[in-house]
Amino acid sequence: MTRVLLYLRFERFWHWAQMLLIVGLLFTGFDVHGSYHILGYARAVDLHNAFALALIVLIVFAVFWHFTTGEWKQYIPTRKFLREMAGFYLTGIFKGAPHPVKKSRTAKLNPLQRLAYLGFKLLIIPVQVTSGLVYFFYPNLNAHGWPPWTLRAAADAHVLGGFFLLAFLIGHVYLTTTGSTPLTNLKAMIFGWELMEEE
Prior knowledge:
Elements: E1 2-5, H1 9-33, H2 41-69, H3 82-90, H4 111-136, H5 138-143, H6 149-176, H7 184-191, E2 193-196
Antiparallel strand pairs: 1-2
Helix pairs in contact: 1-2, 1-6, 4-6
């Protein structure tokens, strides 16, 4: 076994900041939606907007970082070992089967993770940001001729996206526990280092 710096400092900062902002957005968003009443509507809206602005700024920096470092290649989908990973998550993990795909500095994500994160980055986040911006700027858009139904469509898309975000978060937290020990992946994302088998 060798100790490898798998996650760089910015990568860890970006991951945890994104997680905190998304949890804050979910908490305030469902309060705004009326699922519960903890903060009050006005306070929830103000916090939701602040978290959303912070997330958009973080996304801009993260996109820049991914493209300047080449880390965007981590998300390129592949069918190699896709069936094996599905089998591992469905049954193999419960039988103590070995992980079909080994992590490396240049391939941190298995084929299913690549698809999940690609969907998160290219579908869920863009839908949330776009629908949120339409909702936020609707008075200006309406003054320029946008019909009233676009507000409802944006709100519905935003709530649906919120449920997808929540599902992604729950799945992500669960899969974090599927390393060699339940805390292996968590420790790696906090400190950056992970023990890996030598090739």
